User: What shape does this take?
Amino acid sequence: MTLHGKLIQTLVSTAIIAVSSSLYAAEPIQPIVPAKEINLALAELGKKLYFDPRLSKSGFISCNSCHNLSMGGTDNLKTSIGHNWQQGPINAPTVLNSSMNVAQFWDGRAPDLKAQAGGPIANPGEMAFTHELAVSVLESIPGYVTEFKLVFGDDSIDIDKVTDAIAEFEKTLVTPNSPFDRWLLGAKGAITAEQLTGYELFKNSGCVACHNGPAMGGTSFQKMGVVEPYQAKSPAEGLIAVTGKDADRFKFKVPTLRNVEMTYPYFHDGEAETLSEAVDVMGRLQLNKKFNTQENGQIVAFLKTLTGDQPSFLLPVLPPSSDTTPQPRPFE
Assistant: This one.
């Protein structure tokens, strides 16, 4: 292509982006965009580590166990199952679009994906390993030794590199092209009249005060139970666990609503089993608004337009263990 042709192509692309942006400029929600600036080799290594149960003490639990990429990045349980069938204290949030979060975990104790990735490995109630033992397992697997060297350029494996790789893979787990995104970009037939009415209700009722931006959440901490207290079934108290400030008690990271029809049950304790129930509770406790049956159905119909293209990739083939790699011990 000639320089003139490239210039024309650039101008046209810029014009398309400008026109598309103007279509949703007045909306509190923006479309999800595909992942950019990904280190492909690092992400491919991270994908293997994400699916590898050998990073757990039992050799049975992987990141994908609680953040199943076939199930909206969750496990669809009220609370997750950890080592030795321990019941977790809190609902597993989706990993999808988590790169857009202001922090990770419900209480925000991890500032980013890299910090989050190391947490479950060493948590005695989750994968129940130690970082040192996890690294030693990887060092016993020749295929990983080679791949770490190819990706990082040296012979060492450490937890910093492990979490770097997992985080890079998780950055790819975005879900663009939902019907609502297509509507935002000008395809007015992408959602139905009922769904559009639901969006107007969602917006005008004040839901967008917390559920806004591309991820529709994940960017602030809010108190659960503004109008009246929420009767939680979980001992978790939210942001206070990080800040120590009493004012942060029962403040939790606002969850993303992207792909929300797939990420049931809802809330930090998983007590809302359906979207209808979640809409009802949020309306009453956060907005002092009682949605009638028709309004509730319209908002639920809108929320179902937020399911985007799910991550699609070849499942990784994990490098085989060596004779010195510890055997799985799921019953010990």
User: Anything to note?
Assistant: Confidence is low (pLDDT under 50) at residues 10-17. The CA atoms of residues 20 and 185 lie 5 Å apart.
